Amino acid sequence: MNPGTLHLIPVPIGRAAGNETGSTQQSDPATALPAPVITLAASLDYYIAENARTARAFLKTLPLARPIQAIEIRELNEHTPAAAVHELLEPILKGRNAGLVSEAGCPAVADPGSLLVAAAHRAGVTVFPHVGPSALLLTLMASGLNGQRFTFSGYLPANPKQRAEALVRLERRSAQEQETQLWIETPYRAQAVFETATQSLQAQTQLVLACDLASADQWIGSRTIAQWRAQPAQIADRLTVFALLGAAFTANFSASSASSTSPNKQSPAPPKHQNVSPGAPQHSLAGRSQRRFRP
Questions:
Q1: 207, 243 in Cβ contact below 8 A?
Q2: How many separate domains does the chain show?
């Protein structure tokens, strides 16, 4: 019997108000995912998920081909022993198609699902990634930083001193290699990471905050560290992706842009409705007093 296929199914990344994990989708899959992906995801009867409860919540939003009670969901998370990964693969080896989902966004990216994907390749199982939302790429797209070279560093250390040291290393590499550095953080630690960054990084380093992407409360801000120090953001309890670009590259990029612009012409005014804003989050005091347009 030929093995089945392991389908990598993205999950909408918007979250409902008050949900810290982002696991209950506010986004409608019909608008967040392509129609073929929805059709395929609704047809599968075997899923591997980081959390069975939130995977079930996602599946309930789909036009399922069978009762949800008939769909088998097994968990793969940080508590899963490495030896148990092969057991998750067994049904696929016997010809059953399966879906791998993350809590939100693309599976196997900053997600333990990568262990299953690696095991599938070793076993000769076809792995099929499907198109869907990625918080990392959405952040990079909207950042205005270097999209030609970038690195994702996952989570930074929880210890403040170690976190500061890690940020300085990322900044140094960014400046030397001319590459954008991206990382993520849990909502309850987002504000602390922002404050460590403003205390540890160089004044001209560019820092981007991408909060609650693909939700009604989405906000993306891009400033230098000096500007963030002058007007701090309030991002406590917000799902945030961070990006920075070291000052050396920022200066080179600005100089290059300036040389290609006529000195007698002013830069065009930004569009009225834009996702990348120089202001503070709308829900903050600074945001309410200075932002003119909804993020």
A1: yes
A2: 2
Cβ–Cβ < 8 Å for 101, 9: yes
Segment 88-137, tens digit of pLDDT? 999 999 999 999 999 989 999 988 899 999 999 999 999 999 999 999 99
Residues forming a β-bridge with 184 = 155, 241
Domain boundaries, position 67 = 5-129
Provide the whole-model pTM: 0.77
The answer to whether the beta carbons of residues 281 and 274 sit under 8 Å apart is: no
139 and 86 in a common domain = no
Q: Does residue 263 form part of some domain?
A: no
Largest CA distance in the chain: 72
Asked whether residue 21 is assigned to any structural domain, the reply reads yes
Sign, CA dihedral 103-106-107-112, equals negative
**Residue 84: partners with Cβ closer than 8 Å, 6 or more residues away:** none
DSSP state string for 123-154: TT-EEEE-----HHHHHHHHH-S-SSSEEEEE
pLDDT in tens, 185-232: 999 999 999 999 999 999 999 999 999 998 889 999 999 999 999 999
